[in-house]
Amino acid sequence: MSKLIENTITFVKSELKNAEGGHDWFHIERVYKNTLLIAEQENVDLTVVSLAALLHDIADPKFYNGDETVGPKIACEFLFKQNVGSKIIEHVIAIIENMSFKNTFEKGEKFTSKELEVVQDADRLDAIGAIGIARCFNYGGFKNRALYHPEIEPNLNMSKEEYKTSDTPTINHFYEKLLLLKDKMNTKTGKQIAANRHQYMKGFLEQFYAEWNGKH
After folding, report:
1. What is the value of pTM for the model shown?
2. Structural domains of the chain ordered from first start
3. pLDDT, tens digit, for every residue of 103-145?
4. Interval 78-111: pLDDT, tens
């Protein structure tokens, strides 16, 4: 397994060497570390969660015109070349296909597994707290979005397609996603860490509005 993980890390680093700062190798590394931390308290297949964490953003749809098939395809081809067993490949790909926040907008029966819950929590933890704030504004700048516009209210009833194509001010993203993640955590460890990071974001927003309105 160690050789497989080593090869996967090398592959991901190479694939993401020019990625946007919030979705680069260091994002993957943080999610991988979060995954291992959460997995300590969960009965999961460590190979599956490790590979899913490392490959989950190998081709984020945001940077591929919204195409959600590119990432799973690249991940599947890589794992096949590494002679990984078909059951593990299928599980890893299923996690990659189902872990995104935007999938919460869809109705109907969905794939579930303890491994998905662990990796999903690990990824969502990197979207909140201090790093979550940094990533949010980094991506907003990358897309040339306004920081905040008092007259543009957050849309709390978006469809999946509306969420994918939204170009509203960065502050709105806190209400449309980041502040919702605490209550969507699956694992005990994820919930504990998320609670602290959630409070940090609320404090940031209070300070942001105070400064915006010319207060101390």
Report:
1. 0.91
2. 2-212 (1.10.3210.50)
3. 675 666 788 999 999 999 999 999 999 999 999 999 999 999 9
4. 999 999 999 999 999 999 999 888 767 566 678 8
Structure tokens at 142: 């990358």
Give the single-character DSSP code of 187.
S
3-state secondary structure of 75: helix
Q: Which residue has the tokens 């516009």?
A: 149
d(CA 119, CA 112): 12
Q: What is the largest CA-CA distance in the chain?
A: 60
Tokens standing for residue 81: 């070349």
Residue for token pair 């960065």: 170
Q: Nearest 5 degrees, angle CA 79-CA 53-CA 156?
A: 125
3-state secondary structure of 94: helix
Q: How far is CA 110 from the centre of its chain?
A: 18
